[in-house]
Amino acid sequence: MYHFLIARFTHTHRTLHRHNTFSLFSVVCNTDQHKGDTFTLLSLINSCGLSPEKALKLSTRLQLINPNGPNAVIQLFRSYGFSDSQLSSLVKKHPFVLLSKSDKTLLPKLKFLQSIGASTIDFPKILIGDKFLTASLEKTIIPRYKILKSLVCDDKKVVLALRRGSWNFYNDSMVNDSVPNIEVLRKLGVPQSSISSLVSNFPCVAFTKHSRFVEAVNSVKEMGFDPSKLYFVLAIRVIVSMDKEIWESKFKIFEKWGWSRDICRFAFLKYPEYVMISEKKIMKTMDFLVKDVGLAPEDIATCPGILTRNLEKTLVPKCAVIKILKSRGLVKSGLRVSTFIMTSEEKFVQKYVTPFQKDLPLLLDAYKVQKSD
């Protein structure tokens, strides 16, 4: 695959087809065309919060004859926590949902989601995204739910997977490839916690074609990743998600900062996801760490995770605070950047700001100002 990693790894292209089933519907109006058009427009504008322009565009595909059905649909979604803006997004994405029978078609699906722990916060994220509302509850949703539950062993993780990528739920690979993919991991001794993390956070990776998944797993094994550690599945995620050309482009960027291929490989073993950062972010963050903070480029490779942190909101404010503390002799001059950058916001304030409030009463204010700039 990637010259310095695994020579035999090859990239295979995968195309994901998304199809909106609503486009297959047609509605025939037996009433006066003009009155129907006017009613449809007013309903889309007043009840669904659409702009006149968007409503006019949708009205060419959709015609509402009676207000009772659409109003019942709208009220149902409102009762499940949909805001005006979320209702508008739903109708834009799936206009023909307004023609559904709220009690017979929609309500059972919403109740099913509720039964597995979905909250009012989850509903819009799951339902606006893709085909859940048009899929058969008995023939599609429940059977696929059972597959997903067998992979993550927890309804909370099922809901998270649906939130993160509901469209993956309807791919053929979800049925054909997900179970054998996860079986490969289980045979290697990958903990259930890591498997659940992969499936719920990166369902498109867990459901990728089996041959590609196995190839990625073999590559990760040969690189030296430990199957018992979370980084094993994170490395799989990176390899499945990136093709050879992208890898090469990232390596060329780091070569500008003096990283050899061996250093890149070392950093990948430390924190696989660092190679997924955009070129712009890599250059800006490396420039700050090398020129402003004074780190040697090769030292950054020992903790490449710092490259993934937000430059303006995390790196700059935290480094500014530590610089002040060092100038007053309040922290060791040899304090490693990774020690305070990778810590949480709450712990950073507790350890490096609050204890020094008496000596530096404006330190917290300075930190907040840096974060807000």
UniProtKB/TrEMBL annotation:
InterPro entries: MTERF (IPR003690), MTERF_sf (IPR038538). It comes from the Eukaryota. Belongs to the mTERF family. This is Putative transcription regulator mTERF family. GO terms for cellular component: chloroplast. The gene is 25491192. The keyword Transcription regulation applies. One of its GO terms (molecular function) is nucleic acid binding. The keyword Phosphoprotein does not apply. Keywords: Transcription, Transcription regulation, Transcription termination, Transit peptide. GO terms for biological process: chloroplast organization; DNA-templated transcription termination.
